[in-house]
Amino acid sequence: MFTITYLTKTLIIMTLVIKLVTSQTLDEIKAQIINDWKSIALELVPNYQGETAYPEYQRRQWNFTSDSGFSTLIENFEDKSGSNRKISIQGQGEIAFQGASDVISGAYLCQFNFSKSAIITLHTDEFVTAFNGAQQGQDGITWVKDKPQDVTKLAVPALGKQSNQFFLAYDLIYIRDDYLYMGEVDVFGNEATLDNPPKGLCAPLIPFSDDETPLTLDELKEAILGGVWQSLTKEVRPSKNNQGKLITTFQTRKLTFLSESNYSLVLTSFPGPGQTSPFLEMEVIGPFVWEEDASQVVAGAYFAKFSMSQLYITPMNDEMATNLNQGLPEGIEPFKNGQKANLTGKEFPALGMTSDSPDYESDMVYQRQNRLYLQARPVDGGMLYPKERRTYSLQRDLIDPERSSFNLFLLLNLIVILML
Ligand SMILES: *[C@@H]1O[C@H](CO)[C@@H](O)[C@H](O)[C@H]1NC(C)=O
Ligand SMILES: *[C@@H]1O[C@H](CO)[C@@H](O)[C@H](O)[C@H]1NC(C)=O
Ligand SMILES: *[C@@H]1O[C@H](CO)[C@@H](O)[C@H](O)[C@H]1NC(C)=O
Ligand SMILES: CC(=O)N[C@H]1CO[C@H](CO)[C@@H](O)[C@@H]1O
């Protein structure tokens, strides 16, 4: 009879512990993806037309019946209410993995081939007119509001889809704990293609039946303390350049709550995705106060006002230090690479800091398992200020790697082994 030795026991425990912390191989992703997944809340997606970015809201379901078969429902809404649908896409087909992402370690590029079905429903007169205008009756299709149209093998000129071709979508898959991530290319809402794969992760999907009991405000206050909440990867974030034009930037965030009423947020900026080195670090410290309940976004979320009372900037390379030192405003010491400068209360127009810059943001906080969410950034790259510019949706998550996500299955294994 096989008796488990202490050595075996130790080895199994070590393997389980390692499993909890390392990033996935493709085989592990394939094993973990088989589940039904959904958005936590409505997600803010940019709809860029001409020179302007408009907010649009999206809800996604992705179900994987095997490591290659999927069915999906993607609904886009006109506004945060989640009641005015614009377009729904429903489909079934196959996912084909195409190799590792070279910008997000542990993520795999993939192609979704809607080979079994692709059904599109338009919910606004505007869309119906635009789709019919492009369609010109091709493949016998006349778009009718709220009527599902099977386009599996048919042309949809409005979406660049041709007759006898299946709808194809390119994306990436990354799984960490019980969260499934897909990617985004930029802040203009461009779809990924074979040649232009995603550069960052978007808000995660959670298992369909993984609803948590929402935290009360007191529980939330307690839960966020003591954590070091960090970006999983470099994030694709909307910002504005000196001319006020929307640009894609790459940043990581590290948020800590110094006390029940103060926070520190470190934003590290990178020139691009992948293995690039940072050029600037900015730390904001200040008090935060809780505002109203945000359960219209997701149960357990609360709005909070984050004020800025201290500001520090560190150039992370010589070039950045030199750039900052060009036209240095009076009263600011020259910058040095790697040296943190205290810019609290200083004006620095080149960095967008003037006496009438907002000194707070109307943000939001939501916490579940080992993840913390703030509010999605406005699609135009501006600030969450004033209150009217709230986006009413979750941004991608920050993780506290020190906190276990309480993977129940692994935990049970561990307990069983310990009892042997
Ligand atoms: C995904 O699975 C859930 C049940 O787990 C079901 O309610 C939902 O309709 C499915 N969605 C799709 C797009 O297949
Ligand atoms: C999509 O799937 C269909 C059916 O399996 C297949 O015939 C077709 O070649 C696939 N398309 C691509 C681009 O892989
Ligand atoms: C930075 O400057 C502000 C305003 O002068 C001051 O209150 C703060 O203590 C300074 N921070 C440090 C770390 O010295
Ligand atoms: C460390 C820090 O910033 N502490 C501040 C926390 O907030 C209060 C006001 O709410 C300040 O008085 C502290 O200095």
What does this structure look like?
Helix 1 (6-21) packs antiparallel against helix 6 (408-419). The strands form three sheets. Strands 1, 2, 3, 4, 5, 6, 7, 8, 9 and 12 form a ten-stranded antiparallel beta sheet that branches. The chain has an eight-stranded antiparallel β-barrel with strand order 13-15-16-17-18-21-22-23. It contains six helices and 23 strands. It is globular and about 70 Å long. With 420 residues, the protein is of the alpha+beta class. It has two domains: 6-207, no CATH class; 217-399. Bound molecules: 2-acetamido-2-deoxy-beta-D-glucopyranose (4 copies). One 2-acetamido-2-deoxy-beta-D-glucopyranose (NAG) binds at residues 310, 342, 344-345.
